[in-house]
Amino acid sequence: MASLSPPSFITFFFFFSAFLFHSSHQTLYSPITKDNFTNLYTLLIYLKTPPQPSKLHLDLGNYLPWYDCVRHYKKSSSYKPVYSNSSLCTDIAPGLYTSCIYPQGPGCFNDSCGFFPENPVSRKSATGSLLIDKFALPITTKPGPGPVSELVFACTDNTSYAKMYRGLAKGSAGLAAMGRFKYSLPAQVSRAFSSPQVFAVCLPGSSVAPGVALFNSPGPYYFSPGIDISKSLTYTRLILGPTGADTEIYHEYKSPDYNLELTSFRVNKRVVHLNQTLLSIDENGKGGTKLSTSTPYTLLQTSIYNALVDAFVKESAVLNLTTTIPVEPFSIEPFSVCFAADKVRSTRLGPFVPTIDLVLGNNNNNKVVWRIYGSNSMVRIQNFGFDGWCLGFLDGGLNPSTSIVIGGHQLEDNLLQFDLERQRLGFSSSLLFYSTTCANLGFSATKN
């Protein structure tokens, strides 16, 4: 099973145990690791009896956690199937059941509740069944698992498990579904510990040190050197997608995605003129803006992409930056706007390039700004003698299901708080502005 090596876990524990969160609920956390091969992320949980650390692909969407029960579920004394005639099955997947011709075991029971887990990268689905087992997350006061509860998740079966892992973060044994659904991972944690439906995610900017997901606590969130970032969050409302939006299987469910009300882009504070109809979600679930940790870089509908690129190039010229050759021959990603690295000045907020603002609506019908600095807008490419900074936004095509998909690179070293009690997202913008990163949670911060 994929897991953190002992030295990595011990380092991570001491990194976090320097402080305690002050909350009416015990804060649970999970380290988030970046995979340099896919530029995607894994989240650590404990599963089974005895508890075993497991890395799961982190997805800000998807309905239900799922797990590779074929290769990674040989031993557990506490697992139990969810049967098709149970109230739990009726609540999650009514009318679905599975039978099994293989020996009985995890993911293989007759008359068990069926579920179709989905790969958020490839959009491939598989057959599977529901399982319940013991589950825990680390805590901030000692190494190893914290309070134990139960987790409902889907098991992939023998017939289709192989295709489910193509494109996921390397080393993942399943999926940590963090979406807006009553049986997503955060929802199950909140229900198990009677805590508010609030969780936070802070993606690491590199694979050198982990970021973190935080459960059971709305804050404070102390980052080295003693800064409570919860006091610096700006809030924007979360928009619900229509029933059946952006899912291949469960058309009766609301979309599990976190959709935002993006009203415009600005480059160096100058408004970029866009087709406004693309920014709203229509009755078929198309259009709009969502967050995704299963997309490495932000994807923009073609006309939006062209408008942003034109504005960015013009504003870069004001800084005496001229584009160099595109990097299609040198990178697997089709970056089209690049500057020679030796022509770009470095700052604590990354390469000195025009800022990009996401202008968003909030719950008071006002506009708020999520500013993207060079550390999140640009990608360093060094291949075959090419050394440049490239704009990390990609053309998502003429007719994508979502007009704007804000990808992982743009979210790194930003603290994101998902407050489902108030249907809002809190965002910090770059933590580099505060001279800290997602890897610095509580490293030297203390609270008397």
Automatic annotation (TrEMBL):
Q: Which residues form the Peptidase A1 domain?
A: 41-428
Question: What residue stretch is flagged as signal peptide?
Answer: 1-29
The protein's matches in Pfam families, at most eight in alphabetical order, are given as: TAXi_C (PF14541), TAXi_N (PF14543)
UniProt keyword terms in alphabetical order: Signal
CDD domains the record matches: xylanase_inhibitor_I_like (cd05489)
Q: Which InterPro entries does this UniProt record tie to the protein?
A: Aspartic_peptidase_A1, PEPTIDASE_A1, Peptidase_aspartic_dom_sf, TAXi_C, TAXi_N, Xylanase_inhibitor_I-like
Per the record, the similarity remark reads: Belongs to the peptidase A1 family.
Name listed for the protein in its UniProt record: Peptidase A1 domain-containing protein
